[in-house]
Amino acid sequence: MKLSNSELVTGCVKNSRMHQKALYDKFSTTMYSILFRMFNDREHANDVLQDAFITIFQTIADLNDPERLAGWIRTIVVRTAIRKMRERSKITFTDASEINDETLPDFNFTAIQLDEAIRSLPKGNRLVFMLIEIEGYKHKEVAEILNISEGTSKSQLNYAKKLLRKSLNEYTSEYATKK
Amino acid sequence: MNTLQNMPQKNKNIDWNKRLYLHQPDEDVWRKIEEKLDFESKLSNCLCELPVHYPDLATWEKISSNLHSKKTINFKYLYVAASIAVVIITSTIMVQQFRKDKYIATITQKHSISENDLEEAAIAEIQTYCSTQMPACEESRFKELMQLYEELKAEEAQLNRAIQQFGDSPEMIQSIVKIENLKSATLQDMIILIQS
Which residue from A3, A49, A78, A176 has the fewest beta carbons nearer than 10 Å? Predict the structure, then answer.
């Protein structure tokens, strides 16, 4: 039986385990994918997913509009992830000046290669890239979440893209060589 | 100079631009722009197709058990609340029982007082009646009953003193009850004789 967001929220507010499991099943994969890309570590991603969903179930009564459920869950997951990242180690933002803007003849990469390339980015760039390009946050919001300036957010995104181009070019080159 | 000042601003710029040498960008620039646009386009397409990653099956079990333990804390609070409620209810019942016992004791005491009062009132009435030299009071049967009543009263007083000194026993209580019954029967017989 497929439950609506409104039914899911009402059931979770009443602490119904069936509704909690249904909500978890509906959103866990999307949220885990975000976390796995952020941490590039399955164990940490699972731990943060666990913490985030416990927070979700404990605070779901505060959600006034069930139509905002997906965004609300995403916000909790992202903020929990960043808090956990900060607890583990400082988030550093690497300087972009060292990367050459080299020319790339062909962009024949796949989504799987892109996924790997995103996960291999330095932590700070990875966060900015993911929040802006995948999660749709604005630079102003990212600056607020990560406690950086809007300028840093923009330069980090630019740097992340340069790094991605570089690593994806390497993938493509390796693939071409093997072929 | 005057001519330049009087010229419209737009015409002045056109004039200067016409005089300047035009520089050509490198041939690479457009290629780089094109590459970046291609990359951005490919990137946005691939971002929509990023693979889905699945959490461990154990993650839900952990969340569920964590929520369960939270529930246990609630049960603990419920248990404490229930214990407090039980203590309150028990003490209320005990207080009520104590009051009830006290009330019964009071009633019993009042009842015994009233019995004694009735007995004394009956004796007082019989004595008042006999003081008018009624013939029934002169009868030997009446005199025997009155003597029996006095003996029973004396015996009862003696038993009560013994109970006060040495404490009661089932036998002593039974004796008291017997004497009380005999006293009541004796008084009733005396009243019947007077009324006859």
Answer: A176
